[in-house]
Design brief:
By secondary structure, the chain is an alpha+beta fold. The protein contains six helices and eight strands, in the order ααααααββββββββ. It has an eight-stranded antiparallel β-barrel. β6 and β7 form a beta hairpin. α2 runs antiparallel to α3 and α3 packs antiparallel against α4. The chain starts with 5 loop residues before the first helix and ends in a 32-residue tail after the last strand. The relative contact order is 0.09.
């Protein structure tokens, strides 16, 4: 529950003008606003605390009459409060992206942004397209399925699933889930999973496919392999020391009427209601 309520605002309005009491209250208010990340109230209270110190020092020293000091103090606080309000209102403005064409409201849309110190616009765009955002752009919320076999734990084969909630790039979260036909303890149909972060090897100019590995995994099951295309992976692992490899294919997202969502991704500046951003699993 926040300290700042309408009642608190009503109480603070007259109290801030009381010598010493208002100064102490402003100091406490600034500290609480800082802890709650309420920056508007924080900076208003900081300025009120500063003006309060000046007012109290002049009144205590007796260097000026009380009436003009109180009037000047009230004017100074009103001015700084208004300046903070104007700045806070400007900071709270929502970022807007100009769009000349109308986009479809029936589809999902994904905005990918990037930042680089590269001064050349053409080079910057190339770095952006080939860098981390590319994995977000083509694999955001993607879901792959496959089937593996193992003579001891999955003799007739078991399905395995890969979920990429954020995309396919270094550090992205990935979740593999499957079940053992019978595990080492003899338990049948035991579900298993591992959650980890991805490590990517982009390959080289000779046409080598992009390879991936798990930089971390919570249940010590490691997977690695190759990204063959946007819709197909070749995955490898070891089960009880035995090498196992299998193909995983992307599950296409469908609309409520059963039709497939478009699989093509828009390029920079392109807007088309029939081929908007493909967001698998949305």
């Amino acid at each position: 529950m926040t300290f700042f309520t309408e009642l608190e605002d009503i109480i603070y309005a007259p109290v801030e003008y009381i010598p010493v009491v208002g100064t102490v209250f402003s100091f406490k208010r600034a500290h609480i606003a800082y802890s709650e990340a309420d920056w508007k109230r924080h900076w208003q209270s900081v300025s009120n605390f500063g003006w309060g110190l000046v007012r109290d020092a002049v009144l205590i020293s007796g260097t000026a009459e009380a009436a003009p000091v109180i009037v000047i103090h009230a004017m100074a606080e009103a001015l700084t409060d208004k300046l903070v309000e104007v700045y806070a209102a400007k900071s709270a403005e929502e970022a807007k992206i100009p769009m000349k064409k109308r986009i479809s409201t029936a589809n999902y849309h994904l905005l990918v942004t990037g930042e680089t110190k590269e001064k050349s616009e053409a080079t910057a765009k190339q770095l952006f397209r080939d860098g981390h955002p590319k994995g977000l752009r083509y694999f955001h919320r993607s879901h792959f399925v496959g089937r593996f076999t193992h003579p001891k734990f999955a003799a007739r084969g078991e399905n395995i699933s890969l979920h990429l909630p954020n995309g396919f790039y270094p550090g992205a979260t990935c979740i593999f889930s499957w079940k053992w036909t019978k595990d080492a303890a003899g338990v049948k149909n035991r579900p298993e999973h591992t959650k980890g972060t991805l490590k990517i090897d982009p390959g080289n100019d000779s046409g080598t496919s992009t390879r991936f590995d798990l930089a971390t995994n919570e249940n010590h099951y490691n997977f690695w392999g190759d990204i063959l295309s946007e819709d197909k992976l070749w995955v490898k692992t070891r089960i009880d020391g035995d090498p196992v490899s299998f193909e995983m294919k992307r599950v296409k997202a469908r609309r409520s009427d059963g039709s497939l969502l478009p699989s093509r991704v828009m390029h920079d500046g392109e807007v088309n209601s029939s081929t908007d951003w493909y967001v698998p699993g949305a």
